Structure formats: C-alpha cells, structure tokens
Amino acid sequence: MNDWEIKSLDQVSEIVGGGTPDTNNPKLWDGTFNWITPNDLNKLKTPYIYDSERKITKEGLTNSSAKSCPSNTLVLSTRAPIGYLGITTSEASTNQGCKSIVFKNQHDPLFFYYLLSLSVPSLINLGTGTTFAELSKKDLESFTLRFPKDKFEQTSIAKILSTVDTTIEQTEKLIAKYLRIKSGLMQDLLTKGIDEQGNIRSEKTHKFKNSPLGRIPVEWEVKRIIDLAKDKKNAVQTGPFGAQLHSSDYVESGIPLLLIRNLVDGKINLSNLPFVTFEKAKSLERYRLAEGDIIFSRVGDVGRVVLATNHHIGWLISGQLLRVRLSGNISNGFLSYFLNSRRIKEYLKMEMLGSTRDSINTSILENMFVLVPPQNESDKIYSSLSKIDETIKEASEVINKNQKLKSGLMQDLLTGKVKVPNRLIEETNSNKEN
C-alpha cells in the first residue's frame, strides 16, 4: 500500500536504556519518579502504566544510568522476558531490563504499542544470551516495522483496538465484582442459610445450635456423606485406573473421559478432552456419570468440584477423580457449593495422604461431615449462587468473544490487510484539530 512505509525504530523514535541506582543508598530511593521494571509491565491490565512498585528520587536519576523519559513513552521489557509493553502516563524511568521508546510527534505511541505487541515473537527471536535472552539496543533500533504514513490513520487503528480493550477491561472488572459478591454470599448462605422471608439468618434474630461444623441454624443437620447415599457401597466411587485403560482405548470421538485438567473453576473445560471407545465404555459402566453426580478431584489439586448436568450423562471419570452419588433428599447443587467452600478446603489440608503428592481416598470423602439444610432451603441457596455463576459465565463469554475480535482486528488492521475507512480517519483528524 502506497500510503504505508517501512522504517526502523531508530528512524521514528529514540531508544533509551535503563539503570538501577545504588540500592544501598536510601537517598536514591522512595522518591516520586516511577522506576519501571519488567515485573511492573507484567502486572498491567491496560496499555498504560500509572504507577510502579518502586520509585526513585531526583538524586537517584542523576546518580545512575536510569534516564527520565516523558509521558507517552512506550516501555518494552528486553530481558527476563522480552516482550512486555506499556505506555507511561507521566515522566518515568526504567531499570536495565527495559528499553524506553520515545516516539517523534508524527507517530502515535498507542498504535505502536499494538504493532509491537503483534511483533513480540520476532523480537524474542532477536534476543541473545546464555543465561537469559536479552534484546540489545542496537537490535531494537534496527528492528523494522511497516505502518501508515498518516498519524491520523495510526490513531484511528489504535482507537478501534483500544475500544475493544476497554470493553474487555470493563467486563473483567464486572467479573471481579461478582466474584467478590459470590465469595461473601457463599460464606453467609453456606453457614446461615435463608429464612422463609428470603433473608440471611442472624443469631440476633434466629435460633442457632452447636454442631461438629460450628454454629448452624436449628433447622439444619450435620451428616456424613455416606449417610446421605441410597446405595452406601457406591456413595463415593473412584474412577478406573491406568491398568484398566490402554492407549488403544482412546479415540478422536467416543465417550468423554474426565480428567483433573478438565475441572476448572467449577465447570468442565472441554479443551483437550480425551475420549474412549464405546466398547470400552460399556465395560466401565460403573464409572459413568448420571445427572446430579458430584465430581471431586482426589489427587494433586485435591478438591476441585463440578456438578454433573444432563450434558454429562454417560461420561466416564478417570482414576484421578471421585464421583459422589447421593439420594434425592438433598440438593446436590447445594452440596457441590459446600464441598467447594473454604471450610472444606481447610479440612482437606489436614486429611491429605501421600508423600510425593497430595491425595485423598474414598473413605475420607465418605466420612466427611457436611451441612444438610431442608431441601427447599438448599434449593434456594443453590439457585442464588448458580445465578451469580451464570452471570460470571456470560461475562467470560463476552471477554472471549472480544479477545477473538481483537486478535482478528490486529491481524487485519496492523498489517494493512483491511484499511480503516476514510470517514474514521477524517473524524480522528477533526477531533485532534478541535
């Protein structure tokens, strides 16, 4: 495209190295100047750097190789690792693990933030060193990029991408908010419950009693998991071990086999889901799932919990997992949340078996005490918590959708494959003039 050009970074910017003031001289530290490190860049959730973990004084700047750079400087980590990026919002300096890229006025730093983000694999390939790879100032200066000549076109592309980034950021904040709400609700609902008016109980207004699990509402009971099962022999079932499954049993499609890695944040992650032949699944019938079964990890990361739905009927569990199957007089949904509570995780830490890695057996889970509210109340508690989880799931899907959108837009807009409409460029130009 004739309106794009290819130039090296030193033709469009000044590359500035970093440094570290004497750490034994307190006069050089705890000042007001941001001192950015790769670790600061790694923590960023947006393109912009507002703060740094450590700050230096003016004396620290003048008595070290650290250099002050203006706001709107693009900072790139050039070792341990190569490729973290951020744009300063105020005057700042960096340590020697970063390089500062100070662009000339006719170039948009935010556009180059996205363009260099797309170029990180190429930058990594330029790194040299025996202990860890480092990108030299010379190699960075000679690194060539292809970009629009017109700054307003650069800014228009950056604006489109940053709009998607803003949506992702706002949705992440929404998820964090609902996770906090869920955490607080779980603490209240799984210990105090909901009264007939739909209010969380309090010892000031309701009757409580002592139990092996602490103070609980008088309406609640405490029972062992095995006592809640109709078939006590199969209340808690371990999945088949490796000796019962061979490489020839695995196929590209068939009956799904759940592993620990597929239990993520209370949901089943379908990526890397293994399958076994239908013939083999028939011989492992006792390990297959029914709706309402609770799946519990028993080794490694002990205590991952997922409630099986109608989508999982007939699936198999591996020997890494336990299946809890109870009678119909308790809400399995409530119990799945209770088994995922802090109280249970703390209990499991004390009951772990094994010297090389953590594990539990069926006996530990069978004899675990759990809270048993009246079923109508446990159903209400499950409904309240699952609604929040559904909101979090929907928000996560929005993030995934926008991340895919951003990835596609970066490939199209930053390579010139798709040109920004002139209308947007003219609008950007008009806004700058006003």
Topology:
Elements: E1 4-8, H1 9-12, E2 13-17, E3 29-36, H2 38-42, E4 48-49, E5 54-56, H3 58-62, E6 74-78, E7 82-88, E8 92-94, E9 98-103, H4 109-118, H5 120-126, H6 137-141, E10 144-148, H7 151-189, E11 208-209, E12 216-217, E13 221-224, E14 236-238, E15 250-251, E16 255-258, E17 263-264, E18 267-268, E19 275-276, H8 278-283, E20 294-297, E21 305-307, E22 316-317, E23 321-324, H9 332-339, H10 342-351, H11 362-366, E24 369-372, H12 375-413, H13 422-433
Parallel strand pairs: 3-8, 4-7, 16-22
Antiparallel strand pairs: 1-10, 2-9, 3-5, 6-7, 6-9, 11-12, 13-24, 14-23, 15-19, 16-19, 17-18, 20-21, 20-23
How would you characterize this protein structure?
The protein is an alpha+beta fold and 434 residues long. The protein has three domains: 4-148, Alpha-Beta Complex (Adenine-n6-DNA-methyltransferase TaqI, Chain A, domain 2), CATH 3.90.220; 150-201 and 375-434, Orthogonal Bundle (Helix Hairpins); 221-372, DNA methylase specificity domains (Adenine-n6-DNA-methyltransferase TaqI, Chain A, domain 2, Alpha-Beta Complex). Helices cover 36% and strands 21% of the residues. It is built from 13 helices and 24 strands. The protein has helices spanning 9-12, 38-42, 58-62, 109-118, 120-126, 137-141, 151-189, 278-283, 332-339, 342-351, 362-366, 375-413, 422-433, and strands at residues 4-8, 13-17, 29-36, 48-49, 54-56, 74-78, 82-88, 92-94, 98-103, 144-148, 208-209, 216-217, 221-224, 236-238, 250-251, 255-258, 263-264, 267-268, 275-276, 294-297, 305-307, 316-317, 321-324, 369-372. A five-stranded mixed beta sheet has the order 2-9-6-7-4. It has a four-stranded antiparallel beta sheet with strand order 14-23-20-21. Strands 15-19-16-22 form a four-stranded mixed beta sheet. A hairpin with a 2-residue loop joins strand 17 and strand 18 (267-268). Helix 4 (109-118) packs across helix 7. The radius of gyration is 29 Å and the shape is elongated. The two termini are 29 Å apart. The mean pLDDT is 91.
